[in-house]
Design a protein that fits this description.
Layout: H1 2-39, H2 51-57, H3 67-87, H4 92-113, H5 118-128, H6 130-141
Helix pairs in contact: 1-3, 1-4, 3-4, 3-5, 3-6, 4-5, 4-6, 5-6
Length: 143
C-alpha cells in the first residue's frame, strides 16, 4: 500500500511536470511567433493572425519569414523539455520527450493547415520538436 501511494504521487508529479513544460513552452513559442513579424516584417497584406490570410499569402513568404517560426518551435520544445525534466519525479527524459511529442503533434497540425516549403517542414519536424526537447532534458540533467 505504501509503495503504491509513493508511485501515484510520483506519477502526479510527472503529469504536472509535463503540463507545466507544455504551458511554459507554449508561452515561449507564442512570444517568438509574435516577435517574428516585428523583426522580420511580413509582406504587405499578410495577416499572421488569420489562417486564411496565411494560406492565401503563402507564395509571398521568403525563407527569412520562416526563421522565427522555427526558433519558436525549437525554443518552446527546449524550454518545455527542460522544465519537465527538472520537475519530474522519475522517468525524467521520458517526460521531456512527451513535451516534444505534444509540440510535434501541434506542428504536424500546422503543416496540414498552412502551406510551407518542404525544406521548412523537414527542418521543423526533424529538429525543432523532439530533438530540442531532448536537448532541454540533457541540459537539465547537467544541473
Amino acid at each position: 500500500m505504501r509503495i503504491q501511494a509513493c508511485y501515484s504521487g510520483g506519477m502526479v508529479k510527472n503529469i504536472f511536470a509535463v503540463i507545466l513544460g507544455l504551458a511554459v513552452g507554449s508561452a515561449i513559442n507564442m512570444g517568438f511567433v509574435a516577435l517574428g513579424p516585428m523583426i522580420i516584417p511580413l509582406p504587405a497584406g499578410v495577416d499572421a493572425t488569420s489562417v486564411e490570410s496565411m494560406k492565401a499569402s503563402a507564395h509571398l513568404l521568403e525563407a527569412r519569414h520562416f526563421i522565427f517560426p522555427f526558433i519558436a518551435h525549437a525554443a518552446g520544445s527546449l524550454v518545455g523539455g527542460f522544465i519537465a525534466y527538472m520537475i519530474a519525479a522519475s522517468h525524467k527524459m521520458i517526460c521531456a520527450v512527451v513535451v516534444g511529442v505534444a509540440f510535434l503533434a501541434g506542428g504536424l497540425m500546422m503543416v496540414l493547415m498552412l502551406p510551407s516549403p518542404i525544406w521548412f517542414i523537414a527542418a521543423d519536424i526533424g529538429l525543432a520538436y523532439i530533438p530540442a526537447a531532448m536537448l532541454g532534458g540533457k541540459l537539465a540533467m547537467r544541473r
